[in-house]
């Protein structure tokens, strides 16, 4: 039997009939040779579907490889006896494999599925619009084409950065500076840690302070009242409030850093 693939210029009907014969033979007795021949015949279909998602962060060769995987799955699962054409069966199978690739392996962070789908549409529109418009596409151009709001387009463009992550150990070059790891260029000192340590250091002394003095500290440093307002609440003079605050703070300071207090006392004695 002469294979249709050996005929350099078969007619359309003969070509389709040959595909049906190969698909029926593969369904009845699958072999690597038959699968390879069918993959070769339907490769243009896989390439066309992969090109729908080209232009984004994923290399086209990777997309084509995923599409080919979907094509092989479609060939192995196709049942000619159901009367459906192979293309009708294969297209959703290949597209499903491409979408699964983006959903499961193409993201460094978890992005909701509906946002992933929107990202693919936005990236496709950004690739198609410039030749048609003769300029770079704006957010409003993309929103109009896809019937989305500008906020939805911006969300998709921002979320698309989740395709790839950047290691904190990389050393990006900065003009006029020596390259250093990214982890040394971001973040800031959290002064809250010092407050926690200071609070733990003074906790024993704070527990021994009379209740009235603790209330005065609370009114001054938590409720941010003035000494005059505190005096009115507690029922003592403003000068008395001032003396209590000064003596209490000195006591707490000595508990938190006794070495500093000792050095300060030594300096005054000198």
Concise structural overview:
Helix content is 67%, strand content 0%. The protein has 270 residues and is mainly alpha-helical.
- Please state the second-level CATH architecture of the largest domain: Orthogonal Bundle
- Fourth-level CATH superfamily of the largest domain: RNA polymerase sigma factor, region 2, helix turn helix motif
Average pLDDT over all residues: 77
Q: Uncertain regions: pLDDT < 50 for 5+ in a row?
A: 1-10, 260-270
**Class inferred from helices and paired strands:** mainly alpha
- The helix count comes to 12
Q: How far is the first residue's CA from the last residue's CA? A: 113 Å
Can you give the helix content as a percent range?
Answer: 55-70%
CATH class of the largest domain: Mainly Alpha
Task: State which percent range the strand residues make up.
Answer: under 5%
Give the strand tally: 0
Largest sheet, if any?
none
Q: Write the CATH fold name of the largest domain.
A: Rna Polymerase Sigma Factor, Chain: A
Can you tell me about this structure?
There is one protein chain. This protein has helices at residues 12-28, 32-51, 60-77, 86-105, 113-133, 139-146, 150-159, 192-208, 211-221, 227-234, 238-256, 258-269. By secondary structure, the protein is an all-alpha fold. It has 3 domains: 1-106, Rna Polymerase Sigma Factor, Chain: A; 109-163, Arc Repressor Mutant, subunit A; 192-262, Arc Repressor Mutant, subunit A. Helix 5 (113-133) packs across helix 6 (139-146) and helix 11 (238-256) crosses helix 12 (258-269). Mean pLDDT is 77; it is low at 1-10 and 260-270.
